[in-house]
Each structure stands twice: as C-alpha cells, then as structure tokens.
Design goal:
Structural class: alpha/beta
Number of strands: 12
Strand content: 15-25%
Helix content: 25-40%
Order of helices and strands: EHEHEHEEEHEHEHEHEHHHHHEEH
Number of domains: 2
Shape: globular
CATH architecture of the largest domain: 3-Layer(aba) Sandwich
Strand order of the largest sheet: 7-6-8-5-9
C-alpha cells in the first residue's frame, strides 16, 4: 500500500485534479495535512510521496528523491507567505519578537534569512499556532502561510485594540533581493517506495493531473471559494500567479535558498527521479544568485 500526502491548502489543488480518480482501484491511500505535518510523516515513513517543504526535502536527501517538473513556487508576491508587522519597514524589526507559524518549515527559514541578510536585523523568534490575532498580541510581527494568510490578506482586518498591521509578502522580498523565483515546496518520494510508485504509475498520473488542473483553474477556484469565503477572482488570480514546473530558474532560486538555509549544504545530495531516467542531480549546471557569493 502506498500513501500519498496532500497539503491541505488551495495552492496544491491544481496538482491533484482528479488524481484519486486516476488512481482508483490501486493500493493507494491519501493523507492530508499542513506542510510541517507532511514533512514529519514522510521522514517517519508514514507516507511515501508528498509535496513537502523545500528545506525538508533537502534535509532528507539521503532518504527521498525529488520528482522533476513539480513544485510550488512564485516569482514575486505569493500572497500566502506573509509577514504581518506593527513596523512599517521590516528593517525596523531589530531586537523584537517575531512569531512564526508552526505549519511551515521553508517559510520559517526564509524569514530568518531575509532578516539576517536582506533586512539586516536580529529579531527574536517563537514558533506558535497560526492565529494572527494571538500572535500579534505577543509579538511585533507574525508569519502566516497557506489559506489562513490568503484570507487575512484579503480581509485586511484590524487587530482589536491595535489596528491594522503592515503586510510584507516574502516572495516579493526574496525577488527584490535575489532577482529569482522562490520554491516553497517540492514533491518528494521515499527512495524505498520508488519501485512501487513506478509499478502503480503514480508519476504519470501526477503529471496528467497537473496538466488538467492548470487547464481548469477557474473551476478549481469556484469549488474552493466557499471554504475560504473569498471572491472567485481573488482565488483565480492567486492560482494563475503560482509556478508549478521547477524550471532551471526556479532551481537557481532554490539552490540560493538552500545554500543560505543549510550550513555546508551539498547540492549533489539532492537527486531527481523519473522511472524512465532513474536518479540524477537536481542542480546540475545550476548556479546560485550572487547574493550567496557576496556573504
């Protein structure tokens, strides 16, 4: 039995369009969760394949292989990885507390990288349940990800007794600094499960679902809109703005991030896998942005 993880956010819906129908009748189960939960489940062998935090995929490189041409990435604003702040400029966040979402791994490290190297501040950090009101009562800034961030961004609500916080989109901040896309999630499979994944035709089914899903974004947004209570146009634009392909430019952004996030990171450790091609280096021929060399 194979178990496939699904991030329980809108941003993966195009990638899983009718996937369960395609795989019906095969020994395959599905498990939903936020990124941090799927990271832990894949590491523990409780699931075999999932979109997980990009940093977790790199940290588990000896256990997992990446599926090429699948990612959740953005060039500029992403709308679902947001830093809400009482300060009007992130460069004012020195020696203050930033509350970090417990649903994230990649975005947590992204905040720390931007703070140290781009904004050049040294905040204090805490990891908390994702509740913007509670987080901003105790901290000067709060990181939210996923559907919760999208809802808060759209509503722009006041925090009782404090007013409306400023909002910084971390995809946009990364682009300003590096000029590159940012990759938030990768599809990773446990290496021990690769023969069964191949046997069950999971990879081709994923690519077929992605192609069909990207052709049906308005329908996906319409079906999901009642869950978030947001206008159809907001969700449609959000999905259209995301990148799902893991192009060479995306991989350059990812390599830049991993070199900053993981001390002593070895790019050759991260391997891509396709049934027809086997394992091969993810970052072959890819160079990080100049910001790495300049540190």
């Amino acid at each position: 039995m194979l178990t496939i993880g699904i991030i329980d956010y809108l941003n993966v819906e195009p990638m899983y369009y009718r996937l369960q129908e395609r795989l019906a009748g095969r020994p395959i189960a599905f498990r939903r969760g936020v990124p941090s939960e799927l990271n832990r489940a894949l590491a523990a062998g409780e699931i075999d394949l999932a979109p997980i935090s990009a940093i977790a995929a790199a940290e588990m490189a000896d256990q997992v292989a990446i599926l090429p041409n699948l990612s959740i990435a953005t060039l500029g604003a992403v709308k679902t990885v947001l830093l809400f702040s009482w300060m009007a400029d992130p460069r004012e966040l020195d020696d203050v507390r930033i509350a970090l979402s417990d649903e994230s791994a990649t975005s947590v490290e992204l905040v720390k990288i931007l703070a140290q190297h781009f904004w050049q501040v040294s905040p204090r950090y805490s990891v908390e349940s994702q509740d913007l009101g509670q987080m901003l009562r105790r901290a000067s800034a709060a990181l939210l990800i996923g559907d919760g961030a999208l809802v808060e961004s759209a509503h722009r609500r006041d925090i009782p007794g404090r007013g409306q916080p400023h909002t910084f989109d971390l995809g946009d901040e990364w682009l300003k600094w590096t000029g590159l896309p940012f990759v938030f999630a990768l599809w990773a499979a446990r290496r021990s499960a690769l023969p069964l994944i191949d046997e069950q035709g999971v990879v081709s089914a994923l690519y077929e679902s992605k192609a069909e899903g990207l052709a049906h974004i308005p329908q996906i947004a319409r079906a999901y809109a009642p869950r978030l209570g947001l206008p159809l146009g907001v969700l449609t634009k959000y999905l259209h703005d995301l990148r799902y392909d893991l192009t060479p430019r995306d991989r350059a952004g990812l390599l830049t991030y991993l070199r900053l996030a993981i001390p002593g990171f070895q790019p050759e450790s991260v391997q891509c896998w396709l049934p027809s091609a086997g394992l091969r280096p993810t970052f072959a021929g890819i160079e990080p942005a100049d910001v790495v060399a300049g540190l």
